[in-house]
Amino acid sequence: MTEADFLTSTRASYDAFADDYAAWLRTELESKPLERGLLAGFAEYVRSAGAGPVADIGCGTGRVTAHLHGLGVDVFGIDLSPGMLAAARREHPALRFEEGSMLSLDLPDGGLGGVLAWYSTIHVPGERLPEAFAEFRRVLAPGGEVLLGFQVGDESLRLEEAFGHTVALDFNRWQPDRIAELLTEAGLTVRAKMWRDRDTDSEYPERTPQAFVLARKPAGGGQSG
User: Fold this and answer.
1) CA-to-CA distance for 176 and 185, rounded, in angstroms?
2) Comparing 221 with 121, which gets the higher pLDDT?
3) pTM score, two decimals?
């Protein structure tokens, strides 16, 4: 799949079901205490560092952007899908949301205190992940933090229908060690890896285990990739 195909299909798929997605996941974090704890820790790190705002990259409908804002974080959202951004602006009118791709962020070098990629790198083809992680490092200030959430696995899931809409959406699963390796190769220092078993009993049952990786741009690492 070419970059244009990947970006176009992902954007069109999320545009198709943005309103349904917003309604479905509106209260999802309330059922995930572990994830709320990880986000709280991330928020504390970036607040204490004071290195700049946080970009929630692949913010979708802005629910996690708003959660971080509620934790006292200076945060804004970036997403590929105009439909998701419209939902985010409607749901959270006080926050800032911008259109963009994590492969080519319209942000200056070293301007961010944190990057959150909460289940958004899952749509990036594996061979393009190094580019995304290089962008994360570029836009982070020295000492800035990055937190990733993703599904664990070795194969991809292709969805051709979601919420009654026809889509073409690939969900790429990764092993935490592989993500940590790629972050390290991008010049980031991995600080924590967490794996948890899949949740099958909640309102949001999962097909796979979930993982989270926290990394930091070294304080003496300069500002460009």
Assistant:
1) 14
2) 121
3) 0.91
Q: What are the backbone dihedrals phi and psi of residue 186, each rounded to the nearest 5 degrees, phi first?
A: -80, -5
In this model, does residue 168 exceed pLDDT 90? no
Q: Name 30's Cβ contacts closer than 8 Å, sequence gap at least 6.
A: none
Residues counted in the chain: 225
- Rank 45-59, 74-88, 154-168 by mean pLDDT and report only the highest: 74-88
